Amino acid sequence: MKVYKGYLIAIKRNISTIILYCTIFLGVAVSMVYLSGREQTGGSYAQMRLSIGVVDRDNSLWSHALEDYLEKYHDVTVMKDDMDKLAEAVYSSQIRYAVLIPEGFYEDCIQGKKKVESVTESGSQWEYYVNGRIDAFINSARVYLAGGYSQEETVKNVLDTGDIRAEVELESTREDLGIYNVFRFMPYLYFSILCFVLGLIQKEYQNIDIRRRLQASSLTLRNKNIQSLLAFFTIGILSWVLCEGIGILTCFSEFRNNPNWWLILLNGFTIMLGALAAAFFVGSMARSDAAVNGMANVLSLGFCFLGGIFVPLEMLTGVVRRIGQFFPTYWYAQNISILSFNETLTDSLRTTLFQGMGIQLLFALACVAVALAIGRARRQEE
């Protein structure tokens, strides 16, 4: 078991790196649990009222109705039709948003498909917030008109719908986000520890002098590969116990009460296998310590940024989200979100969970297969 012991001895020499990453993660985890605990609410919500300006170029029944409708949700100021002053008011934050009701509003926007113009800061989030209200007004008007109501009756009914308020009540008994905030960042810990530490060890075993010494010994190639595989799994399982243990320690009460705790651990085990395969790939491809560090940084940070670990999945844009689906971290993040916010799992959610775990395993197999193929080609060249 010389090869197996060699891996373990090398791990002992790099124990300081493991302790460093675990300490950093523990500090981040405790901070996230503390912050999520402070964000607990009693379940009451209030919508945000914005200061918006309205320019009425139509001065009709429908334009006045839209103004009244918006006043139910926002602080509305009727303004003059002066684009320079509107732009100045927006950029000086006197108003957040300016709505320009066009002439012929009923014919062009309600009966037609023309959009209501607006003035806002470039890329402002308020554009979607206010436009959603305007779209709701127009869509409701179209429904009532299609039902045979007169214009006056439609205006009254649409304004009445603006007085309806939904009562939101949380059904979940778990109010904090401890599990989600802690376990969401677990892949970065796995990829950092395994790629940096195991990558360096695996790189040393790819050294031609060491390979020749092993070939000259009585150790067969099959025995050497079995010992290497056993060492990788031993280190991987130890890292899984260590990392998941840190996560459980920082949010123990919530984890204990979560009915899906075993699926959280299983999801962590599959991403650990993905990180283990990535470490094998890094160690097989790199020819120097600097190359290992560079590849490990690219993999750990790239996978976590594009895979929904550092940035929540719902905030990723369409193109980035599609790219992230090629990474195991994307499916891990999707699974941990499901397990954190759903106490009862439907059949479709279970299918999604196990599909995500399966993709993580496929990624691990693909990494190992590519590394073995390239390594074999290199040995043939030598």
What's a quick, concise take on this entry?
Strands 2-1-3-4 form a four-stranded mixed β-sheet. The protein has helices at 2-13, 15-38, 61-71, 83-91, 105-110, 126-146, 151-161, 178-183, 186-205, 208-216, 221-250, 252-257, 261-285, 289-306, 318-324, 328-341, 347-381, and strands at 51-56, 75-78, 97-101, 117-119.
Q: Tell me the fraction of residues in β-strands, as a range.
A: under 5%
Estimate the mean pLDDT confidence: 81
* Low-confidence parts: 39-45, 172-176
Counted by DSSP, the helix tally is 17
Which structural class do you get from the secondary structure elements? mainly alpha
Strand order, sheet with most strands? 2-1-3-4
Largest pleated sheet: 4 strands, mixed
Instruction: Give the helix level as a range of percent.
Output: 55-70%
Which outline best applies? Answer: elongated
Order of helices and strands: HHEHEHEHEHHHHHHHHHHHH
Q: Please state the oligomeric state of the protein chains shown.
A: single chain
Between the first and last Cα atoms, what is the distance in angstroms?
Answer: 27 Å
Overview of this structure, please?
It is built from 17 helices and four strands. The protein has a four-stranded mixed sheet. Helix 3 (61-71) links the parallel strand 1 and strand 2. It is mainly alpha-helical. The protein is 69% helix and 5% strand. The chain has helices spanning 2-13, 15-38, 61-71, 83-91, 105-110, 126-146, 151-161, 178-183, 186-205, 208-216, 221-250, 252-257, 261-285, 289-306, 318-324, 328-341, 347-381, and strands at residues 51-56, 75-78, 97-101, 117-119.
